[in-house]
Design goal:
mainly alpha; 3% strand; 238 residues; two-stranded antiparallel ribbon; 7 helices
Length: 238
């Protein structure tokens, strides 16, 4: 029974992929995670500037609860991606842009896993009295660090905090790159990439645009200059 239901669900997802679109499940995962990432970045910046007191504690509690929710969602998104087919669209064309997009994608997943995990590790190491919950409803356990000495717990917390900070900086860099790439696909390349993740957005008509011509001219110039810089120097003749 379960295998038949799973087969039907994956077949339904494959139908969307064949049309060059992500499934509604993948779309919900994507935009929910995007909203939570932006919320956590803004909320984390704001709560760090609050004065010590009950308001700051409540702000951190919400930050923790959303972080646990993000961890569950990214695990679910990864599981869905592992089984449900993804569409093949214009972003998959061979070239440096496709390679850069795939690298960015994997770094995003590293951040989305690493941020809640490092936060969970920080709280488990030093906030032993902190009660974690999933979305404020379901209790979430701390990591089992009861047998670890206080000195080692302090070291674990310091490493996790630096990792957390580094991943935040990575996200602050990746988000504008990702958004800029999506806008380029929509308005410069005029292809089907954004339509695949946002079906309500009409697919742009294929036609040459001045922005596309300008982009290609700049790209050719950059490639030409890069080749001049990296061209190995020829040995001089004696």
């Amino acid at each position: 029974m379960i295998d038949r239901v799973l087969f039907k669900v994956l077949q339904w997802a494959a139908g969307h992929a064949e049309e060059g679109r992500y499934s509604p499940v993948g779309i919900v995962f994507h935009w929910t995670m995007a909203g939570l990432v932006l919320f956590q970045l803004g909320w984390g910046w704001w709560m760090g500037r609050l004065p010590v007191g009950g308001g700051k504690v409540a702000a951190y509690d919400l930050h923790y609860a959303v972080g646990v929710l993000m961890l569950v969602l990214v695990v679910g998104r990864s599981a869905w991606r592992a089984f449900a087919p993804e569409p093949i669209n214009d972003a998959d064309k061979p070239g440096w842009e496709s390679t850069a997009a795939h690298i960015t994608h994997y770094v995003f997943y590293a951040c989305l896993f690493g941020l809640p995990l490092s936060g969970w590790l920080m709280i488990s190491a030093t906030g032993r009295e902190t009660e974690l919950t999933l979305a404020g409803l379901i209790p979430w356990p701390l990591l089992p660090l009861h047998e670890v000495s206080n000195a080692r717990l302090d070291a674990i917390e310091a490493v996790a905090e630096w990792l957390h900070f580094g991943l935040v900086l990575s996200l602050l860099l990746l988000v504008p790159i990702h958004v800029g790439g999506a806008l380029k696909h929509q308005f410069v390349d005029r292809d089907d990439v954004m339509h695949g993740m946002l079906p309500v957005l009409p697919k742009p008509r294929r036609r040459p645009s001045r922005w596309r011509r300008r982009y290609l001219a700049v790209e050719r110039q950059i490639v030409r200059q890069a080749r001049l810089i990296w061209r190995p120097s020829r040995p001089s003749k004696a």
